[in-house]
Specification:
2 copies of one chain form a homodimer.
Chain A (H helix, E strand, L loop, with lengths): L4 E6 L3 H12 L4 E7 L5 H6 L7 E5 L10 H13 L4 E6 L4 H9 L4 E4 L4 H13 L6 H9 L4 H9 L6 H11 L4 H8 L3 H15 L4 H10 L7
Parallel strand pairs in A: 1-2, 1-3, 3-4, 4-5
Helix pairs in contact in A: 4-6, 8-10, 8-11, 9-10
Chain A binds a DNA duplex through helix 8 and helix 10.
Chain lengths: 226, 226
DNA sequence: TTAAAAACAGGTACTTCTATCCGTTTTTAT
DNA sequence: ATAAAAACGGATAGAAGTACCTGTTTTTAA
């Protein structure tokens, strides 16, 4: 087996990491030469690594609190800047189109959801080495649906989000554990309206659900915990 | 109209406060002699108040972040300790039995949900003056269902809650915006189990929903925002 | 004063969460 | 070794949240 593909694994969970290694180990043309439990030390570790990987398999299952995408993007950007030759394959539980599109736009060469079968991982590794990238149906769809929103996505990631007064008010009430109906009752408006503000809040803050909204609110001092 | 009933209103929302005053004003035997936008300054304000109210109508729609019941309890206790003669009628959007029971146990003389009709407010005001308390069907049910859990309720309110390792882990993942199914997948357990832990977390932290869980987690440094 | 933004409201479909049952297995502490 | 606590899992039901669509009215700013 000449010209093996050197693969690096970035995954915080030991069990899953070892499982991945075991699976990759069954493929003769693949060799795991690097692993890291987190994304932040990856660049450092790569610098004094005996055999530099061709492909980096990066698990993004646990982004830091309050930001669904930023850390993944940061790691991707950092690695690509330092080692432009390394191909980056993202492995994530998140199936959000925005998320996927943002990662690809920021330099990742492929995106796999975590419950894909080993065959797809194999295929993806070969593809990023051979063709430079691996775009499956899911990723393609995400990119298409986010094509027009290039600027929107960017401004969302880097500029401080501006919430309206009403949105902040409702966000505060959400943090105080009021339901949509209760908020509507308290503000003398329809619950449909509250629902609308809720959706806008999720969109503006880039949250997936209520938990994300609360973290955002606290982080940005829209509500005060202490 | 001799022997009017002097009533005080504690309500942060101007519109609702004025509306209440207007409604109470139509009852000849009732006179509003005191109002306050928040519960914390109530005791102070009562001390230099020309006509001391017989009944205090306290709105608890907006408890401080992360605690559904404590502030209401604190205000109730403070007023009762300083002015044992004053009858306290709680007015709240919360229909939780635990919440109601805790307030009554801590000295409130009556509990009304905010969407009750004016007639019930009238009835309640007369009742707390006449009989000393006003217990409606809802309140009675709440008290009965919480009768056996007296100690449980108390320990929940005053002792720091002890979460298990697994519970903290799952709480962390909730804060990171993972859904129950995603958490189950990540931890290699059934979503039913995650659901169980979720319910226990709500119960232990005294939260009403996910928002409460996140606030609790941040407040108690189970996750770190910054 | 005119256009844009914000707030409002209704409908519909689907997903996730909340709540109660019930039970088993594993871990921990006495 | 035994009991208690923790973790696990299944079924079911209903409440709340998420995500679209469609509009109108009010506010704000150019």
């Amino acid at each position: 087996m000449k010209n093996p593909i050197y693969v690096g694994i970035v995954e915080d969970q030991v069990l899953f990491r070892e499982g991945l290694k075991a699976i990759l180990g069954t493929w003769p043309e693949v060799e795991v030469v690097f692993e890291s439990p987190d994304g932040y030390s990856v660049v450092d570790k790569l610098s004094n690594c005996t055999t530099r990987p061709h492909v980096l398999l990066v698990d993004l299952s646990l982004p830091p609190l309050g930001q669904t995408e930023f850390s993944g993007i940061q790691v991707t950007q950092a690695v690509i800047q330092a080692y432009p030759d390394i191909r980056i394959l993202i492995l994530s539980v998140h199936d959000d189109e925005n998320f996927i599109a943002q990662l690809i736009e920021n330099g990742a060469h492929g995106y796999l959801v975590k419950d894909c079968d080993p065959g797809e991982v194999h295929e993806a590794i070969l593809a990023v080495c051979d063709k430079g990238s691996y775009i499956n149906q899911r990723t393609l769809k995400a990119l298409q649906n986010n094509l027009g929103r290039g600027t929107k996505t960017k401004s969302l990631a880097f500029s401080p989000i501006q919430l309206t007064r009403r949105e902040e008010e409702i966000l505060g009430l959400i943090c105080r554990q009021l339901t949509t109906d209760e908020i509507a009752e308290k503000l003398f408006i329809s619950s449909k309206t509250v629902n609308g503000h809720r959706i806008n809040l999720l969109q503006k803050t880039g949250s997936r659900n209520t938990a994300g909204l609360v973290v955002y609110a606290i982080k940005n001092k829209i509500v005060h915990v202490f």
